[in-house]
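Spend some time on this chain, tokens included, and walk me through the fold:

. . .
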Amino acid sequence: MRTAFSAAGIGYGLLAYGIWGFFPLYFRQLSHVPPMDVLSHRAVWACVFVGLLLTLRGRWANVAAILKTPRQLGMLALAALLVGSNWLVFLWAVANQQVVASSLGYFLTPLVNILLGLLVLKERLNRLEWLSVALAVIALGNEVATLGSLPWVSLFLAGTFGTYGLVRKQVPVDALSGLWLETLCMLPVCGLYALWMAQAGHLVFAVDSASTAGWLVGAGMLTALPLMAFAAATQRLDLATVGMLMYINPTMQFLTAIYLFDEPLQTTRLISFGLIWAGLLVFSWSTWRKYRATA
């Protein structure tokens, strides 16, 4: 059931965005590894991890059914391209002290989700939800004014992940099977990259220490868990609600960038946070009213 106030959907969304919010801390441990190398490891180990889960739960029949449906397989390949490129730019941002820019991109993503929901899925917003969107737009306008320009990192992260949410919502595939096929679609690109780098004398899958290997393997598992939760959330919630929950992730990333990574903070950015959380409060109140009315 796809509604704005599915309890299970909200739970899955909170789990996904909470884990993603901690990603800068995790991937900062791999800042010495080239971003495309990290992406390649993430794809391989996520594919292995999800494959084990499929085996344990006896879900390979679902995968076989999807492989017989070219349209669904094509949509999942597109989803893989979108989320893979999103991962790559995020990894670059973490390695290059651009976590504030990445957090701004994820602040923009809910607006992309809402726009796609309105234009493509014909979803509707009530007045309170429009007010929450307006507050978010004002907050983002303040962010742009503070930064002086909208960085490409922010635009790219918002566009790719917002579109990924739309594409993933259109594929009636369970989270495990869909994620395994997405990571599988990434492997040819990662394999070609590894071969290209090997010709230049760099071995992508040869790491310099056991600790680095552990972080890379763990990255695959940590990649799979929130994506599974996100896929489950998108199947139960409308895009507007998925978009508003997204603020959890960039808020955590922004605070990490400022207080742990010592990236610069302009005082005017505090206004943005006030507006964003006001928008979340209004949207939450609207969602609660819907829940009460339905109950």
